[in-house]
TrEMBL record:
Keywords: Glycoprotein, Lyase, Metal-binding, Signal, Zinc. It comes from Python bivittatus (Burmese python). It catalyses: hydrogencarbonate + H(+) = CO2 + H2O. Residues 1-26 form the signal peptide. This is Carbonic anhydrase. The lineage of its organism: Eukaryota, Metazoa, Chordata, Craniata, Vertebrata. SMART domains: Carb_anhydrase (SM01057). One of its GO terms (molecular function) is carbonate dehydratase activity.
Length: 303
């Protein structure tokens, strides 16, 4: 009996593995950007995507509440080229994975937040694809620098209501920056990871600070929201710099033409990977602008 039972058990195990693998395959396509069957309109049933603090949002600047107490964002180690680790095509976005070490802090953040990775959202060569909008204006692309509280793993941070802080910067086309700069270097490297699962090891080719060298980080909007991809966990403090970084047209072209959601053969170009705007549902958006007051000048200018 034992000798008969064992193969039956093995067969059952094989069947379970096959069923689970099938589930995992379809699970990968339970959400996407480019098909009606799994596009953003269908995400409501996934995770927290139907919650009350979802992202992205439109920022109506006249409704933003000025709050000096947020303070300026202090950056550490953003210039360190050794921190860039690997490029990864995740099948829905292009990500730059980092070694731990770069941080942000501010009076408005209750911990130090460590930069873990950054990624992008875009439209097509000719249409805009930022996730957030400012007074209804959408930009070509949006950069998300994802930080976790006190260097938690991303998995841990997703369980903490204050686990994640994302810096968002808009990118727009400009003729001024057609020469080689860190953006051109990064975009050209993305050509090496066209398919889902592709990776490329980095070796100090650029620094995050170099990419942000022309960004104006002296003023920003801040609100509580979610990840913009399933499971849309509502754990994100969003810090959004309204002034766009200017990059060459070539950079936008490379993103929208060189990357694919799956395989080059299947031909689904990674484009329009941005989530539609979500309702504010009573949340407040705060605004901070650096402003040297007379009192702080008295304290710092004469001593
Ligand atoms: Zn993002």
């Amino acid at each position: 009996m034992g000798s008969v039972g064992f193969p039956l058990k093995s067969l059952a195990c094989i069947l379970i593995v096959v069923i689970l693998e099938g589930f995992c395959d379809s699970h990968n396509e339970t959400w996407c950007y480019d098909k009606p069957s799994c596009g953003p309109q269908t995400w409501g049933s996934l995770g927290f995507c139907n919650g009350r603090k979802q992202s992205p949002i439109n920022i109506d600047t006249k409704d933003a509440v000025p709050w000096a107490g947020l303070g300026p964002i202090r950056f550490t180690n953003y210039e360190d080229r050794k921190l860039v680790k690997q490029l990864k095509n995740k099948g829905y976005q292009a990500e730059v994975v980092l070694h731990s070490g770069a941080t942000i802090s501010s009076a408005g953040l209750r911990a130090t937040y460590y930069l873990q990775h950054f990624h992008f959202h875009w439209g097509t060569e000719d249409s805009d694809g930022s996730e957030h909008t400012i007074n209804g204006q959408r930009y070509s692309m949006e950069l998300h620098l994802v930080h976790t509280k006190n260097n938690m793993s991303v998995e841990e941070a997703l369980k903490d209501p204050e686990g994640v802080a994302v810096l968002a910067l808009f990118m727009k086309k400009s003729r001024k920056y057609a020469q080689v700069n860190p953006w051109n270097t990064l975009a050209n490297l993305f050509k090496k990871i066209p398919e889902k699962g592709d990776t490329w090891d980095l070796n100090g080719e650029f620094s995050v600070g170099g990419l942000l060298s022309t960004a104006d980080v002296s003023h920003y909007y801040c609100y509580k929201g979610s990840l913009t991809t399933p499971n849309c966990e509502e754990v994100v403090t969003w810090i959004i710099f309204p002034d766009p970084i200017e990059v060459s047209e070539q950079v936008i072209k490379i993103f929208s033409n060189s990357l694919y959601f799956t395989t080059v053969k299947e031909g689904r170009r990674m484009r329009n990977n941005f989530r539609p705007l979500q309702p504010l549902k009573g949340r407040k958006v705060y605004y901070y602008k650096e402003n040297i007051s007379v009192i702080s000048c008295l304290l710092h200018c004469f001593y």
